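Box 4.2: Ligand-aware structure prediction
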Amino acid sequence: MYTDQPIHETCLVTGAAGFIGSHLAEALVARGHRVIGVDSFVDFYPRAFKEANLEQLRQSPNFSLVESDLQTANLPKLLTGVDYVFHLAAQAGVRTSWGEGFASYVENNVLATQRLLEAAKQSRVRRVIYASSSSVYGNAAVQPVREDSTTAPISPYGVTKLAAEHLCRLYTTEHGLPTISLRYFTVFGPRQRPDMAFHKFIRAILTGDPIAVYGDGEQSRDFTYVGDIVAANLAAMRLGRPGAWYNLGGGTRVTVNQVLRMLQEIMGKRANVVYQARQFGDAAHTAADTTAARSDLEFAPRFSLEKGLRLEAEWLTELISAPALELA
Ligand SMILES: NC(=O)c1ccc[n+]([C@@H]2O[C@H](COP(=O)([O-])OP(=O)(O)OC[C@H]3O[C@@H](n4cnc5c(N)ncnc54)[C@H](O)[C@@H]3O)[C@@H](O)[C@H]2O)c1
């Protein structure tokens, strides 16, 4: 995975221990960049997953990890010599963003982002590439959504992702700091977070536990393989309009019931599905118009849903069989 190429540029990846951040950091190192990862290991899900995500990266001399919270970290020091910032650190998860949980969304998604942008503005960073979300759209009346569709989040999480996106654009227009926001549509693949649907489905199929499906399972999503998200992030280092936001959707829009059928076939096991009430904050359908990303970022998703599901199922099957891990 790691090349002998000379080191090109230095990249800071926030949220590097997480699902997507760890894949991105690996891809950057593999392309000959020096990567500084920063992560505060928020306790949203067990640290053991994040330690497993970092296993390969920790073997590279071109990767270093700073365990620190963006809200308190010495950011000017962290940004010294950094060329590119990939800002993926966030409090993720839609359902837990209601009620008292909201404070941690504001802190980690809005305040931390503002602090990072403020420090980046004073630094020699060439670009800040921000991980935004399809949740900024809410229940859009017209699908697929374009970047100029109305943004009306239906979850507090979506509100914080939208606020951070606006902060990014503000720092571009008002302070000349080049930023790009990438709106990810439901990401899947190896290392997917344990609160996310595919992860829960695969795990339940493996253990024989019931699978809770919220609503009737006919809600649809534009699922995006993590490798395609990584490719778009890499492209955004050189391509894309500063201050812009881009939809990143895999293009395979399917219902939750269809995914469950596909998973049962792939894994050769039956799922024990229990339908439950729809959850507040869950959009009924998401679908991305990716025309802008295709033309500006040369975005061309390569992974089919089936291929990605197979890779995720293989990863989780192996992880769960590792006896030392505390994944509960
Ligand atoms: N997974 C998806 O489907 C999806 C979809 C849309 C957008 N996104 C966005 O992509 C990014 C990565 O998501 P993920 O699924 O990999 O989540 P993740 O929870 O696996 O990774 C996020 C990481 O950020 C770290 N973090 C949180 N607050 C921090 C802070 N204040 N300082 C330092 N580190 C902090 C966490 O410890 C975690 O390891 C997030 O910004 C998320 O909002 C994800």
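In the box above, the bound molecule is nicotinamide-adenine-dinucleotide. The pocket of nicotinamide-adenine-dinucleotide is lined by residues 14-15, 17-21, 38-42, 44, 50, 69-71, 88-92, 108, 112, 131, 133, 161, 184, 186-187, 193 (CB under 6 Å).
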